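User: Before I run my own analysis I want an independent prediction to cross-check against. Here's the chain; please return only the structure tokens and, at the end, one sentence I can use as a sanity check.
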Amino acid sequence: MNPPTNPAAPHHLPGFITAPGETDVLMVVVAVLLIASVLAVGNIFLRLHTLPERMAHKSQKLQFEIVAVLGLLALFTHIHLFWVIGLILAMIDLPDFGSPLRRIAASTEKLAGIESEEDVGVAPTHPPGKAEPEQSVEESAPQPRQVPEQKHA
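Assistant: Structure tokens:
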């Protein structure tokens, strides 16, 4: 038997009102939609937050590390200026001062006769078991060029 309906209630109830003991479909749909939207907005936020790091990934290692640290500082301190500085730094191509300086240092070490870190794995030029030939100062100095004598006619 159906219980009598309250006389103040309308005769036709809307579809989103569920009967007692049944599953509320509207609440389940809204809960799933809420969870999906929170995950989507969080994903968009993190993608936007890591934009400077992804831009700086193609650049030098030091520049990438500075941008990554600025991004972490912005994430944990909520100071957006760090993110803006990281974005600007990621957009700028810093000149590579390290490579020419390393080449100068390696050339200077080679001239001084110091074995550099790059030469550690290189094979020696003299045969094994024999000492490297010693050159005297006269032999190592450049020899003057011999000019052939010309006959006068």
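Sanity check: The chain is about 50% helix and 0% strand.
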